[in-house]
Amino acid sequence: MIVTVDVDKIYPNGCHALKKVTTNIQRGEVVVIIGPSGSGKSTYLRTLNQLETITSGEIIVDGVKMYGGETNINKLRENIGMVFQSFNLFPHLSVKENVMLAPLKVTGRSKAEVILEAEALLTRVGLAEKMDIYPSHLSGGQQQRVAIARALAMKPDMMLFDEPTSALDPEMVGEVLDVMKSLAAEGMTMVVVTHEMGFANEVADRVIFMEDGALLVDDIPENIFGKVANHPRLQKFLSNIL
């Protein structure tokens, strides 16, 4: 579903954020990206929908070259949902209106249809009783679940999560991870940058370990978190956080 080949990202200040990152993400896979701060995890994730442009290399999504001369990036993005660290909800819109906004403006679906879909999505993420209130009246965990519902409202083929629990109080992390686990169980293709090692071990089909812009390890969780993890930098990273 996603192929990245020798992806490099060099910022104008000379920072070499990504170095020849090559991997292949299959439809229905859950791939979790881990690594120390500044390792290039979020930069790499953001290249997958061109929120960050690359310096060189190639990214192919569903057979479409992202940097092909005739590629409509906005159309490509419609199939790629994204959830950020910050919730980015519109404070002047109700929870349901936040979820409805993009489908109404982009897809051309009828308002009646979008209302029903928004209500179903909010029920799915456990917020059926919060549809008509405003984001300021929600906890951080609830706001992040609204953000997930909003991304799902576009009916994406895949979801990108950029450290979705890092801004939450510890007590709220579980409710967001539970929603993500349910998406994974339903077969959603997911790429997740996170520091939640328990989630990575439990849910991921593959775990990618990055440092200094390079992809150092790409393996199944059993090998990443088990005794056979044989990359010294990965071992050091895990020993510091587990």
Automatic annotation (TrEMBL):
Bilayer topology annotation: Peripheral membrane protein
A GO term for molecular function: ATP binding
InterPro entries found in the cross-reference section: AAA+_ATPase (IPR003593), ABC_ATPase_HisP-typ (IPR030679), ABC_transporter-like_ATP-bd (IPR003439), ABC_transporter-like_CS (IPR017871), MetN_ABC_transporter-like (IPR050086), P-loop_NTPase (IPR027417)
Boundaries of every ABC transporter domain copy: 2-237
Origin superkingdom: Bacteria
UniProt-listed CDD domains: ABC_HisP_GlnQ
Entry protein name: Amino acid ABC transporter ATP-binding protein
Subcellular location(s) per record: Cell inner membrane
Family per similarity comment: Belongs to the ABC transporter superfamily.
Keywords from the UniProt entry: ATP-binding, Nucleotide-binding, Transport
A Pfam family assignment: ABC_tran
